[in-house]
Amino acid sequence: MIKVLKPGFYSTIQDFGRFDFQDFGVPYSGVMDKKAAALANALLGNNEDEAVLEMTMTGAILQFNNQTQIVISGADMSAKLNDDHIKLDKIVNVKPNDVLSFGKLNMGFRSYLAVLGGFKAETVMRSKSMYQNITKQFMLLKNDELAILESLPISETQYASIRFDNSYMNCNAIEVFKGPEFDSLTKKQQDDLFLKSFTISKDNNRMAYQLEEVLENNLKPIITSAVLPGTVQLTPSGKLIILMRDCQTTGGYPRVLQLKESALNILAQKFTGKTISFKLNSKY
User: Where in the numbering of this chain does the Carboxyltransferase domain appear (predicted)?
Assistant: First the structure.
C-alpha cells in the first residue's frame, strides 16, 4: 500500500486507456506520454500498459507501506527517496516507511511512477485509467491509499540504469498527417500550417491543447464526426485545438491535421508558452 501525503498539482492513475467504448461516447484516456510510461514498466518487467501514476507539473509525496521496486520516467521533477536523490529510468528498491517526494521541474511536464506489478486500482471498462464520471475519482487526493504488490526482500543494491534518449521532450517538431478536411483549406492556409510556429496557450490539459496563434479561416463547421487523440481542429475563430487523451469522441470543427502517435508523446511534455511547429509526415 502507498499513502498519498500530498497529491501534487494533478496526479492520476493511468494505463494505456479504454478501447472499444467510443461508440458510447467514452474517451480513450490513458497515459499522455506512452513512451515514458512503457519504459518505466519495461524496466520492472511489467506489461508496457500496466497502470502507472502520472504526475503533471509537480510531483506527489508518497509514503510506502510495502517493500517494492519502482522506476520513474518522463519529466525530471528532482525525485528523492527519503533524503537521497534518485535517477530517472533506474530500478530503485523501496522499503516500508520510505517517502518518495519531488521538487524542481527541470525538464518536461509529466512524470511517471511505475511500481513492480503495477498499481491495483479500480478497473472500469477494462481499464484503470481515471476519468471523471467513469471511475469513482478522477485524480489523487490527500490520504488516498494505493494498492500495490509487495515484492520479496532485495538482498543486493542495484546500481545499473538504462541510458534512455529523452531528447524527444525538447523537440519542437510535431509530425502530422493530413486530416479529413485538410484539402478544403486554401493553399495559403495549408502553407501557413507548416510555415508558422504556434504557442501553447494556458488552456491546455488532458483533454486538449489550444494554440495561441490564429489561422485565417473561412471553412464552415462540419457535420459532427469522429475525432480521436491527436486530431487538430480549426475553430471558427481561426484557433487550433489539438485533442489529447481525454478528448471527446466526436466534434463539429474541421479536422485539418492528425498527429502521429509519437507526436502525442512530445506534446504531452510541453506546457504553456512552449512553441511547436507542424511537420507533414514524409509519406506525403
Answer: 23-284
Domains by residue range for the chain, with CATH? 2-167 (no CATH), 171-280 (2.40.100.10)
Q: Coil, strand, or helix at residue 73? A: strand
CA 68 to chain centre: 24
Contact in structure between 44 and 68 (CB atoms under 8 Å) = no
Rg of the chain (C-alpha set): 20
Position 169 scores a pLDDT of: 87
Pairing of strands 275-280, 239-243: unpaired
Element (H or E) spanning 43, and its range? Answer: helix 34-44
118, 51 Cβ separation under 8 angstroms: yes
Distance CA 27, CA 211 (A): 22
Give the pLDDT means over successive 10-residue stretches in the chain (284 positions).
96 95 90 96 95 97 95 97 94 95 96 96 94 92 91 57 78 95 94 95 96 90 91 95 96 95 96 96 69
Please state, as a whole number, how many other Cβ atoms lie within 10 Å of the Cβ of residue 180. Answer: 16
Quote the pTM value: 0.93
Cell (9 digits) for 238: 481561426
Helix boundaries (H) for 93-204: 187-195
Q: To 10 degrees, the CA torsion angle through 129, 130, 133, 138? A: -170
